[in-house]
Amino acid sequence: MAVRSLATGLALSFAGTTLAVFALVGSTLYFTLDREVKQQDDLDIVLISRHTRRLAQELHTQQDVREHAERLTSQVRGNPALSMEILGAGGAQLVEHNTAGVADAVFPQAALARRLPSSQRITEGDVVEWRNARGVPVRGLATEAALTDGTPVTIVIARDMTDRWLLLDRYRERLYAFGLAGMLLAFLMSWLLARESLRPLREMAARAATITV
């Protein structure tokens, strides 16, 4: 019984160590993927914002912005997670594309709170993150652009991060499954190995039990 308990204890120790290693490696991979996904999305937002601002600065009036809406929104077309809104000097909406998924009382106020002036370079550090009233995770930014007549307009680029969250959720579930499977496999193999290694001890214990004085 003591030998069996020793084999089980060794197997549990190996299984616990394996689980700890899986947890450490899995957590590192998960947070690395999360960071890389956000960096790539932030870079896309920054590049789209820069290009859209350059296009807007080539236009003369707010009416030109409305007339060239298709050209401006082409920067976010093709990706259903991306949205664009361009506001006039008084806050009136001039251009809108695909904002229904992220729009609420918060949009675009969260981005407007850190609106960039038209002369400031747009970087990844300018991207902000928020959740709308429905709990949808969003990342985006707002920047001003000066039309050739001097009128300022505000460009808001946002990305619905729901697909990224689902991707990370699936990845995390796989890590849990692999960790559990690895722990069970380590326990079974360790138990079999320990049991085989302790066979001489069991035989000695059995022979000793037959000795009488």
Give the topology, please.
Elements: H1 2-57, H2 62-67, H3 69-73, E1 82-87, E2 93-97, H4 109-112, E3 128-131, E4 137-146, E5 152-160, H5 162-197, H6 199-210
Helix pairs in contact: 1-5
- Largest sheet data: 5 strands, antiparallel
Q: How does the helix and strand content classify structurally?
A: alpha+beta
Percent of residues in helices = 55-70%
CATH architecture label of one domain: 2-Layer Sandwich
Count the DSSP helices.
6
Mean pLDDT: 84
Radius of gyration: 30 Å
Q: Total number of β-strand segments?
A: 5
Order of helices and strands: HHHEEHEEEHH
Strand content: 15-25%
Under CATH at level 1, the class of one domain stands as Alpha Beta
Looking across the biggest beta sheet, what order are the strands in?
2-1-5-4-3
CATH topology description of one domain: Beta-Lactamase
Shape from CA axes? rod-shaped
Distance between the termini: 23 Å
